[in-house]
Design a protein that fits this description.
The chain is of the alpha/beta class. It is built from 10 helices and 6 strands; from the N terminus they run ααααβααββαβαβαβα. It folds into 2 domains: about 90 residues, no CATH class; about 140 residues, HUPs (Rossmann fold, 3-Layer(aba) Sandwich), CATH 3.40.50.620.
């Protein structure tokens, strides 16, 4: 088990609810205070309002300029439902390299749109492989089906995480005279991604997808979505701190 796997386990917000409940079984004093703290903690991590408020602080504003023609639009990998593809690989009725849409698919659709609209000349994406599934093959097929020519999409190298993608883009640029870049990724990931690009001496314009919607009364109702959103942002902040300590951003 890698340190990254341990970190993912420890940032699970429900883990601390369980720890608090176990603690209640053994403590004799301040049970009421501890119970109240657990209730408040559970409420805050289970409402989408928490994630929405944090996103307003964490997000980066788009710098995409619609009148500029970018040399390339860089889309960070992880744009399909890899787990579904791996699980379905033996099913004879599932086409090869089928593009299974996920919440993160907005990234690649945005990238394809920018190339088709003439806002970018090329689409750059890394080759992310999980088990037997090669996401790049599905992306190339999707792009072709949507009207992107083969010479308009470049798979710049094998990637496993964002740092590999940034390093891969830099190596690609050393061999190709591209200057103006547009970076596309999900809103929660953008701050960390931009910091990594700048660390490598790259300064792309940015366009975020998967943006948070406004806060309504439903945002204050505990839901599973709220817990997942809270964990997503905790993961992003811890990841940012970890990469900063390592000197990667």
């Amino acid at each position: 088990m890698e340190i990254q796997d341990i970190a993912k386990f420890l940032i699970n917000p429900l883990l601390y609810i369980l720890a608090g409940l176990l603690l209640l079984l053994f403590v004799k004093k301040h049970k009421t205070k501890l119970t109240l703290l657990l209730v408040i903690y559970f409420y805050l991590i289970s409402i989408t309002c928490t994630g929405k408020v944090f996103s307003q602080v964490w997000k980066m504003n788009n710098t995409f300029n619609p009148v500029v023609t970018y040399d390339a639009v860089v889309v960070l990998a992880g744009v399909t439902d890899a787990f579904w593809n791996i699980k379905s690989r033996e099913l004879p009725f599932i086409p090869k390299d089928f593009f299974a849409v996920a919440n993160s698919s907005d990234k690649i659709f945005a990238g394809i749109y920018f190339v088709k609209s003439g806002n970018a000349k090329l689409l750059l994406i890394g080759e992310w492989i999980s088990d037997t599934y090669n996401e790049a093959n599905a992306v190339k097929k999707l792009a072709s089906d949507m009207g992107i020519r083969e010479n308009q999409i470049h798979i710049y190298g094998r990637v496993k995480r964002t740092l590999n993608e940034v390093e891969g883009v830099k190596l690609f640029l050393e061999k190709h005279p591209l200057k103006k870049l547009l970076l596309v990724t999900a809103e929660p990931d953008m701050r960390r991604a931009v910091a990594m690009f700048k660390k490598q001496g790259l300064n792309p314009d940015v366009f975020s997808v998967n943006k948070e919607t406004g806060i309504t009364w439903k945002s204050c109702v505990p839901t599973v979505e709220g817990i997942m959103k809270t964990e997503e942002y905790i993961h992003e902040v811890i990841g940012y701190i970890g990469y900063y300590i390592k000197g990667d951003l």
